[in-house]
Amino acid sequence: MLNAIEMGQLDEAKKDFAWALRQDDDEVLFSLAEQLYALGFLQQAQRTYLKLLDRYPDEDELRTALAEIAIDNGNNDEALAYLAQIKPDSDAYLQSLLVAADLYQTEEQFEVTEEKLQTAYQIAPEEPAVLFALGEYYYATGRFALAIRYYFALIQAGVAEFARVDIAGRLGMAYAQSGKFDQALGYLKQVAPGFMTADIRFQTGLTQLNLGQLKEAIITLKELIDEDNQYASAYPALAQAYLQENHLSQALKTAQEGLGVDEYNENLFTLAADIAGRLGEFDLVKKYLQSAHALAPENLAISLKLSNYYLSQGDHDANIDLLQGIETDSVDPQVEWNLAQSYQAKEDFARASQAFETARPTYWDNPTFLKQLIYFYQESGERDLLMDTLDHALTVTPDDPELNELDGQLRDF
């Protein structure tokens, strides 16, 4: 039957399967069920296990296998029914706990999942399947310090691979997610070539970037893109590495190539805008920031970057239109400050005054804000507010020559 499946002769495989159920001995049938399950022939595997269970009703290993098939088929109640028949004194109880944990995790009942896994750990604290299951559970739920504990226990036990997963790679990924980049890189470099997935290669490059190993990060990320040019996350990381190396043209080119792969990544548009700004490519800055804002109009950080660009270019109408369109639950002081500057430039002093006043509590000790507020009061003719703000500004930056000169002029007036 297995040979027929391999050759694509499914009709012949069906005949052989029927013959096997009638004629093969139980040991062969058990092996056949395992291989059919591994190949994804769930219905045939289930039929085989059920036939064996009829003959061996006390064999709980068959119930765990049937429960796994039921989970794969989305029949969780059926799986639970099989697992409930397995008692703690059964040889299959440990495996049933792992299968139950898998079931409850698919249902996002994480407390029950953890309870099942910890029960299994109490029974067999050195069992690789238990250690791996705990590591995978804690990794999947973002509890990386705990995941590290169980992956490390596997490494100490000499288990380098489990369920076609490289444990050093998992350990390196968990350390990286915990921000422990030195330890992460040490394990990521131990990953065997056959297990060097795109995700592990990307995490290696990202870890090198976080450690300031820029040249190494560039090599790693370029190799990843050469192997898989659709791996979108590699482009912003590589662009950041080039940027930190001050290779601005290459950084911009990389970001642009990334946008060709992922044209809906507002963060990559923002990064491209930042790089273009350093290169003095202000038309590109505007283009990329407007694209980022169009993709994520609710992202205040992007809106403020675009606002700052409009201010730098003196495009006050565009700035006002942008910021007035922002919908937030509360007033943002940076929005008000930016609005105040545009209203002042358009000599709308009433609105500028209101915006400055709203922003003032937040920026009252900010030298740049204070200086702008002083010149606003000077332009709008509010001498008392001007002098009060100037006095405060001189306590914040007493050695500022511009403010001291202005203070002298106003005192003499």
Automatic annotation (TrEMBL):
SMART domains: TPR. Gene3D superfamilies: Tetratricopeptide repeat domain (1.25.40.10). Pfam families: ARM_TT21, TPR_16. It comes from Limosilactobacillus alvi. TPR repeats lie at residues 232-265. This is Tetratricopeptide repeat protein. InterPro entries: Tfc4/TFIIIC-102/Sfc4 (IPR039340), TPR-like_helical_dom_sf (IPR011990), TPR_rpt (IPR019734). Keywords: TPR repeat.
